[in-house]
Amino acid sequence: MRAHVELIHENDYIWHEAELPFGEGKALERRLSTDEEDGSSSLSLQFPADWGRGPGVAHADTEFYVVSGSLVYGGTEVGPGGYLQVPKGVPMDWIKIREGSHVLHWREYGDAGFDPDGPRRSEGSPSLIDPSKMEWVAAPTVGPLTPLYIKLLHRDPKTGFYTRLIRAPKGWSDHRLAHHPCYEEFYTLSGKMAYNFGDIDEGTYCFRPAGVKHGHFIAETEIDWIIRSDGELVNWYTTDEWVKWGGTAENYHTHEAPVISTLPVRSRSRGAWSGDGM
């Protein structure tokens, strides 16, 4: 499983040589989180020089999201916001990433292994998306909230696993504590939000395991994230809460009780710890 990472700015991580087998060129990585059991990883990549890799089959579900710069996949180029998803075991075409680019990269349900010109091992096909050509869609809300807005990039019809962009307008707020039956992971692309664990701003990362309560949020500016989850993200809310984990369970059952994380990983750059000075 992965550790609970409750707000770390990517600048608090260290650059390493990127683990991108059979690639040619220069690539550096910041490893945002890793599952030590199956090798699943979330990475922030920088490219001091052009980098590329030929066709092959990856050992994991593979995703790339262009924060800045550009990515070329099989001859088609996408700029900032461009998104590529290739299912595990499905052949992928050649890829090239331009010098100076910043790209987010995820490997799910597998490690960094890559077989050049490897055989197809599962069904499915790659998906290359330019989200700038997509419309923002208002998400359903519960209670008197201003809507969040979504661009769905990927959804697995069998597992419900999804990747999507989410936008909160300036002034959006939710005072309730929420938890989910699946993990929730986000990287902040722009904007700023106040949160009880510290400020969320551009470059802030979070990996929150299933069942961990979180809230309250106030969007100080319009703010955008890319968010991933390994299942249908159902919100179970707690209101009338008291410090950390008390309150009234409104719409979930005993077997859906939240996990209480006592020691999340969090950067001090996100704000003082509650126990500082004790």
UniProtKB/TrEMBL annotation:
Origin organism is Dactylosporangium siamense
InterPro entries reported for this sequence = DUF4437, RmlC-like_jellyroll, RmlC_Cupin_sf
Name used for this protein in its record: DUF4437 domain-containing protein
